[in-house]
Write a structure and sequence with these properties.
By secondary structure, the chain is α+β, with helices and mostly antiparallel strands. It has five helices and nine strands.
């Protein structure tokens, strides 16, 4: 793996030099866009809107539209905006990981210690494991300031980017219509159904079945075969009686077990 960021994690007066590596990968099928007439690949080009000519990547700069003119920003400008945050992940405080709503989570990176930082790295890792706490910090990656949670997975420190509060849209406009009457017996049955479906979380039990099925169809078509398609199972109509639906759901789960 190639590191995407080099800098340090700052823990009080302790400085831990680290490299960051992407902890996630995209497993979607690499589908190309083609011209339906001759199956030629479709290419996107960076084109100058005035000349209509393609612009080489090394000639592209970033600019901010100020009134009617663009202010051009260079790489040094991004570093000068906050030089410490481009090279430092400074832990501002420690929190309970469970206090962070999942809606804030983005992507994760593995932190690998440089040789001179291994002992301090191990100390931070073990201290977080013992206290069951996670660090909250900010740093700059790809010219953007990021809020992040520093936590442990196994024996590795992980940096997980989270969204700022103003990046989360308000749910006020969502019409959930929860102001309805729920009887005690319906609520009791709903809780019973949740308990019946409850289990220890194990991510390895979940596979991308749609992805696998799509690959099977591609393999069949590559061999000139007609792929067999799974039929959609019709759902049994149980009417609009919520209590009856809950009772039948519990029965189905029992039979499945």
């Amino acid at each position: 793996m190639r590191s995407i960021w080099k800098g340090s994690i700052s823990f009080g007066l302790v400085n831990i030099p680290v490299k960051l590596y992407s902890a996630v990968q995209n497993n979607t099928l690499p589908l190309d866009m083609l011209d339906s007439r001759d199956h030629s690949k479709i290419h996107y080009k960076r084109v100058n809107e005035k000349t209509g000519k393609e612009v080489p990547y090394d000639k592209i700069v970033k600019g901010f539209l100020h009134e009617e003119d663009y202010i051009i920003l260079e790489e040094k400008d991004f570093e000068d905006a906050s030089p410490e945050k481009t090279k430092m992940i400074e832990i501002e405080n420690f929190i309970e990981k469970a206090d962070i709503d999942p809606i804030y989570y983005e992507t994760s990176y593995y932190a690998e210690p440089e040789t001179q930082g291994k002992k301090a790295y191990a100390l931070l890792l073990k201290a977080m494991q013992e206290t069951k706490k996670a660090g909250l910090a900010r740093f700059v990656l790809r010219s953007t300031e990021n809020l992040c949670v520093i936590h442990s997975i196994g024996n590795v420190i992980v940096i997980t980017k989270i969204r700022f509060a103003d990046e989360i849209r308000s749910a006020e406009d969502i019409e959930a219509n929860t102001d309805v009457s729920i009887s005690k017996k319906e609520l009791d049955m709903g809780i019973a159904l949740i308990n019946q479906y409850s289990s220890e979380f194990s991510i390895t039990e979940f596979k991308d079945e749609y992805h696998e099925e799509l690959k099977r169809i591609i393999d069949a078509k590559a061999k000139g075969q007609r792929p067999t398609i799974k039929k959609l199972k019709p759902k049994k109509d149980v009417g609009d009686d919520l209590y009856k639906q809950l009772i039948q759901s519990l029965d189905v789960k029992k039979k499945g077990a």
